[in-house]
UniProtKB/TrEMBL annotation:
CDD domains: NAT_SF. It comes from the Bacteria. GO terms for molecular function: acyltransferase activity, transferring groups other than amino-acyl groups. This is Acetyltransferase (GNAT) family protein. Gene3D superfamilies: 3.40.630.30. InterPro entries: Acyl_CoA_acyltransferase, GNAT_dom. Pfam families: Acetyltransf_1.
Length: 134
């Protein structure tokens, strides 16, 4: 089973290089509301997830899981499940009461994972995602 770590600057840099193929901005770790976890096995980075705890105008907070990825060689071994539940537990401990994420409609492995830990499809009807360049 992988070890799940809250990253330091070096671990963040390694995870970003592994999964995003670029250099990390390690000041990200200082951003309020940031949640990030890295899975390792024998010092090899096997997965990661990151997102935010977002305050709401009603005084509650919710989580947004922006990205969860597992190395191809470690898929279907529970790494994604451990990362997801660790992210959710940390958010719950910080006071969040809900979590949301988006994934591709045809991303069956991810959807199966999210369903298996109690996720449900949004009830507001069909949705679409928009991106804006600022």
């Amino acid at each position: 089973m992988p070890e799940i770590l809250t990253p330091d600057r070096d671990l963040l840099a390694r995870a970003v290089h592994t999964f995003l193929k670029t250099d990390a901005d390690t000041t990200y770790l200082e951003t309020p509301g940031t949640l990030i976890f890295v899975a390792t096995t024998d010092d090899e980075i096997t997965g990661w997830c990151w997102g935010y705890q977002l305050p709401r105008p009603d005084g509650a907070s919710m989580l947004y899981l922006h990205h969860l990825a597992v190395a191809d060689s470690h898929r279907r071994q529970g790494v994604g499940r451990v990362l997801l539940t660790t992210f959710m537990t940390a958010g719950r401990s910080a006071g969040a009461t809900k979590m949301f994420l988006t994934t591709g409609a045809n991303n069956t492995p991810a959807r199966n994972l999210y369903d298996s830990v109690g996720g449900g499809l949004a009830t507001q009807g069909p949705t679409v995602n928009y991106w804006f360049l600022l």
